[in-house]
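About this split. The held-out portion is used to measure sequence recovery: a designer receives only the structure tokens and must propose an amino acid at every position. Recovery is the fraction of positions where the proposal matches the reference. Here is one held-out target exactly as it appears in the evaluation file.
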């Protein structure tokens, strides 16, 4: 099973296909200039930051449960304690 520890050091262009192949989409939110897609990869939640104006993925990162973005997720779904 692939988890975040397998992906975190890879370049963005290698993370993308692995994430889409091995992760499950959970939900998305709007956050400033991005649509942020939340995925479950093994037992890790991963955020994919999509810039619509440029039609590109800017960043893929492990969900930071201390970030203020958490309120946008928790308003819509109940995430397990991480």
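Reference sequence for scoring:
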């Amino acid at each position: 099973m692939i988890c975040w520890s397998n992906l975190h050091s890879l370049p963005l262009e290698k993370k993308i296909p692995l994430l889409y192949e091995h992760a499950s989409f959970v939900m998305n939110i709007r956050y400033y200039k991005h649509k942020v897609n939340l995925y479950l990869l093994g037992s890790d939640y991963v955020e994919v930051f999509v810039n619509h104006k440029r039609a590109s993925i800017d960043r893929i990162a492990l969900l930071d449960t201390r970030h203020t973005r958490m309120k946008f997720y928790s308003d819509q779904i109940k995430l397990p304690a991480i």
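Annotator remark: Residues 12-22 form the longest helix (11 residues).
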